[in-house]
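All the exercises in this workshop are built on plain-text protein records. A record pairs a protein's sequence with a compact description of its fold. Backbone structure tokens are a discrete shorthand for how the chain folds in space. Once this layout is familiar, the rest of the handout is easier to follow. As an example, a complete record with its sequence and its structure tokens follows.
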Amino acid sequence: MRDSVGRVRTVLLLGGRSEIGLAIVERLVRDGAREVVLAARGGAEPPPGALTELGASVHSVEFDAGDPDAHTGTVAEAVGLVGDLDVVVDAFGVLGDQAAYEADPASAARAAAVNYTGHVSAGLAVAARLREQGHGALVVLSSVAGVRVRRFNYVYGSAKAGLDGFAQGLADSLHGSGARVLVVRPGYVPTRMSAHVDPAPFPATPGQVAEAVASGLRSGATTVWAPRVLRPLFAGMRLMPRALWRRLGR
């Protein structure tokens, strides 16, 4: 439960090793969160000192994005450790390589399952808990890659497009319940996962994404972009003729 001045007390990170997810958690801890649950396959150890030195208690639970039958149990385990969930950060996924996916369609399907259907089961499990509590926010890491899918990463981009649509529908389903969804649309973020990808214009650091999330949670926003310049830029890109978009996406 948020404290008397509205600060977040508890945070669950689905994707407990995500650099962006951990940056968001650290930002919330700096703002006063005191109970953190990191959920990842095999459990996730907290970064050395990063959260505990800021005064947070850190717990670890098992979470496998590819095992939807276990997602409700993961959420229940987190609740058992820290009580009501004020913020849940949905930050798991794989980027992969488009050429590799085209050479191995089965691997593409597995990646798409993690990047989309895993979020469906996890998101619905979280939403059920937040609805029951009558409060809380689910932060969903979408991507500008899903706003208009490009040919060089269309397996990843199409999954993100599906996730973005799912998150918006989930937000509408929670309207009036006291719970909400914040959709986050970062551009290129240099992390271990994106190390093999050529940098793109208007990059953002994990810390900048975290700041956008913290600001969005405070303001009650439904969607945030990181950096904010991407919002008008992609509004124009949505209208770009397909032939031109195809050439830009090479």
Summary: The first strand starts at residue 10 and ends at 14.
